[in-house]
Each structure stands twice: as structure tokens, then as C-alpha cells.
TrEMBL record:
InterPro entries: RNaseH-like_sf, Znf_BED, ZnF_BED_domain_contain. It comes from Zeugodacus cucurbitae (Melon fruit fly). The lineage of its organism: Eukaryota, Metazoa, Ecdysozoa, Arthropoda, Hexapoda. GO terms for cellular component: nucleus. Residues 8-31 form the BED-type domain. This is Zinc finger BED domain-containing protein 1. It is found in: Nucleus.
């Protein structure tokens, strides 16, 4: 009988009859970077030489990205060959099966197309590029030369792929945070220039070991969210935002050591209501900004220059 299999990365359920075909197909089409890491892990485990690799597809996001970027190299025809194969015979005769696999790989749901799409999403996020860059003629021309059989996806398709990538990365982060007992948060509220849109930003800081106390522990940080705020920035509303964000990432209050914020009365009161007294740390950067601001407030020449710079930033920012 067919059984249901839950996928932790996106929460969907897939039928299985004792095999992993459906799961493998879903990973290949929807979470290709995770599929690629798993594929490389299985391939390396069959080699005779000792190799170290990550033990799951839910490791640190940075390692997942590095594995994705380093997993394959393309020649000038778009043909993939692994780094390990460079030391082997690269002139092995291509079989008919290989030719058909390469051709099918560039179809809409082919593994080649999925792999390049994931790298394209990585490029957009890493370089902070606008989504409409995929519609630029320069990129299309570049891809037509590098990989003629690959069709650059539309902005709508890239948006969907980015949302899938976000869900996958979020699952990785939640898995990582579930293993951490002590977490420090930082938070600030920003308002866009020439706009009334406000966002609350929350970042988690922790050490990369479960007990958080070994000499080998390294500081890590991850931005949990930059969430739009639709109400007045009262202490109660900010407290509600803190609760929603920590619940979303399964962070228990007992694991939160502190929250670093500016000295705004609303932020101070929100942290006090969310946690307790003594767990708010004043932000040093904000304190230095207040010191400089008050020191230059009565200095007319400096104030004149600062106002001109602010006007330029406001006009062209």
C-alpha cells in the first residue's frame, strides 16, 4: 500500500510505495541545491579515499551555498563535468544515453535547467540584483553564448523559485536554531527614505555548538526577518512582533539571553514586556550616534555641511 512521506523542507506530503522516486523527483525539481548536495554525498561515499562531507542537507546556509556553487563546472558548450573528473580521463567517448540525458536536462523541468535556475537565484540574492535583470538583453545574450539550449526564465518564474528557496533556507535556519540553547537577538526599526513604510528587523546571534561554551565555538549570526509594520510603533505592537517572529522560528523565550535595541522608549518598554528587566542591552552604535549628534548640534559649520549631505542623500537616495 502507498504510504505518506512528509518533507521537512516544505511541509508537503508525497506518496511512497517503498521507494524514494517521488521524493527524489521533488528534490531535483524544487530544491535542486539540496538534491545536488545529497547526490554528491552519495557519490563520494562510494569512493575508496576518505572524504569529509556534511551529514545532512540541513546544515549551515553558507555551506549549502558553497556546495551548490562548487559542485559543478561548465565548459563552453554548457556540458557539466565534476572537479573530481578533471584528474581522470576527460576524453571518454560519449554514449548515446549520455547525449539523450544532456538533451532532456535542458527541458523545462530538466535537471540542467533546475541547476542553472538555482544558481541564477543565488546570483540575484547574493549581488542584490533586481528581479527584472533576467529580462535584460545582455544576460539573455550571455546565456545564449554560454549555454544555447538554456532558456532564461521570466521574472515571474524567478519570483516563484526565490520563494521556494526562501522556504528551504528557512527550514535550514529553524533546524539550526533548534540545536542552540542560548541566543542573543538584535532588533531595530527602519523607515525607508521618502516613504512611510516601516520594517522591524530581527537578527539572531549564537555560537555554533550545542553547549555554546567550547573554545572552538565561533560566533554566527542570521537575519531572521525584515517584517513590514502596519500599525503605530507602540510598545505593545512591537512586543507582538517579537512574539510572532520568535514563534515563527521556534525560538523559546528561555533560550533568549538578551535583546539589543536603541534607547527609544517604545523599544525599551517592548523588551521589558516581552522578556523581563535586565535583558535589554543598549546599542553602542546608537549611543555613539547620539554623542556625535549632540556634540555637533551647536557647531554651525559642521551642522551646515551635515544638512547639505542629508539633503543630497534624501534627494538622490
Amino acid at each position: 500500500p502507498a504510504l505518506g512521506l512528509d518533507l521537512n523542507m516544505c511541509g508537503k506530503t508525497y506518496k511512497t510505495s517503498g521507494n524514494t522516486t517521488n521524493l527524489s523527483t521533488h528534490l531535483k525539481n524544487k530544491h535542486y541545491h539540496a538534491f545536488l548536495q545529497l547526490k554528491n554525498k552519495n557519490a563520494r561515499s562510494r569512493t575508496s579515499s576518505p572524504v569529509t562531507f556534511t551529514n545532512s542537507i540541513t546544515d549551515k546556509p553558507a555551506e549549502v551555498e558553497n556546495n551548490l556553487m562548487e559542485s559543478a563546472i561548465y565548459d563552453d558548450t554548457g556540458t557539466e563535468f565534476s572537479k573530481d573528473s578533471q584528474s581522470k580521463d576527460l576524453w571518454k567517448q560519449t554514449t548515446i544515453i549520455d547525449v539523450f540525458e544532456r538533451s532532456s536536462g535542458y527541458e523545462a523541468e530538466g535537471h540542467k535547467t533546475s541547476q542553472i535556475n538555482q544558481v541564477l537565484v543565488y546570483m540575484i540574492c547574493k549581488d542584490n540584483m533586481p528581479l527584472y535583470c533576467v529580462e535584460k538583453p545582455g544576460l539573455k545574450r550571455l546565456m545564449s553564448v554560454i549555454c544555447p539550449r538554456y532558456k532564461v526564465p521570466s521574472r515571474t518564474t524567478i519570483t516563484g523559485l526565490m520563494e521556494q528557496r526562501y522556504a528551504t533556507t528557512k527550514a535550514i535556519v529553524k533546524k539550526k536554531l533548534s540545536e542552540i540553547n542560548n541566543i542573543a537577538l538584535t532588533s531595530d526599526i527602519l523607515t525607508l527614505i521618502n516613504s512611510t513604510r516601516s520594517f522591524i528587523v530581527v537578527t539572531a546571534h549564537f555560537l555554533n555548538t550545542a553547549n555554546n561554551c567550547t573554545p572552538e565555538s565561533e560566533h554566527e549570526m542570521v537575519t531572521l526577518t525584515a517584517r513590514r509594520m502596519y500599525q503605530a510603533h507602540t510598545a505593545d505592537y512591537i512586543k507582538e512582533c517579537f512574539e510572532n517572529i520568535t514563534d515563527e522560528f521556534s525560538i523559546e523565550k528561555d533560550c533568549i539571553l538578551s535583546i539589543t535595541t536603541d534607547g527609544g522608549a517604545n523599544m525599551v518598554a517592548a523588551v521589558k514586556k516581552f522578556l523581563e528587566n535586565g535583558k535589554r542591552i543598549p546599542c553602542l552604535a546608537h549611543l555613539l550616534n547620539l554623542i556625535v549628534d549632540r556634540a555637533t548640534r551647536d557647531n554651525a559649520p559642521v551642522l551646515q555641511i551635515a544638512n547639505r549631505v542629508k539633503a543630497i542623500c534624501k534627494r538622490y537616495g
